[in-house]
Design brief:
- It is built from 1 helix and 10 strands, in the order H-E-E-E-E-E-E-E-E-E-E.
- It has 2 domains: 43 residues; 131 residues, Jelly Rolls, CATH 2.60.120.260.
- Strands 1-4-9-6-7 form a 5-stranded antiparallel β-sheet, with no helix packed on it.
- By secondary structure, the chain is an alpha+beta fold.
């Protein structure tokens, strides 16, 4: 009898330990995975709001230039219906960005147009004198989706009052944009 009782105790002890450890181990693994995901998200965080939300963007129209903004699935569409002699008379921006002087950023997006045309990818301050802060690139668009990537170092920024986006006033027609991101460059 003593041996039988002892065997029963030995059999139950690992079961109790295992039952106690499982929830603790599951919680530990879940916490570790959560922290790893948060660290990865912080490292690769997009500084911009969702591309396919019109409220994420400010569409500017100056003088006689005219354009309208809409959403097509995952893409934002800007339909330029009247242009002037200045490309900046139609502009699309995300504003209020806290970009830092001397920091290298990567600006990426996918774009296409109803007809081949050019646009400008630009970053500047969002107040008078509207100067550029490191990005001012011509982008050639075609009728098919294409990926674009620009790296720039921010300079002469204004605290929490910078903007990034596009000058679209070069030609009439539609421009589709999707997956627009701005991230600090990885070191």
């Amino acid at each position: 009898m003593l041996t039988s009782s002892w065997m029963l105790t030995v059999w139950r002890l690992p079961s109790k330990i295992t039952n106690r450890r499982r929830p603790t181990m599951k919680r530990l693994i879940a916490a570790t995975l959560t922290l790893a995901a948060l660290a990865l998200a912080a490292e690769t965080a997009n500084l911009l709001k969702p591309t396919n939300k019109t409220e994420s963007w400010r569409l500017e129209q100056h003088d006689e230039a005219k354009a309208a903004m809409s959403v097509d699935g995952e893409a934002l569409v800007v339909d330029v219906t009247n242009v002037t002699s200045e490309s900046w008379h139609v502009q699309l921006f995300q504003t209020g960005l806290a970009l830092k002087n001397g920091v290298e950023y990567v600006f990426t997006f996918k774009a296409k147009a109803s007809e081949s045309r050019s646009i400008q990818a630009v970053a500047g301050i969002d107040q008078e004198d509207w100067h550029m802060i490191g990005l001012d690139e011509s982008v050639e668009l075609g009728k098919e989706w294409k990926d674009y990537k620009f790296t720039f170092t921010a300079s002469e920024t204004v605290e929490k009052n910078n903007r990034i986006g596009f000058q679209l006033g070069q030609a009439k027609g539609k421009v589709w944009l999707k997956d627009v991101t701005l991230q600090p460059a990885k070191k």
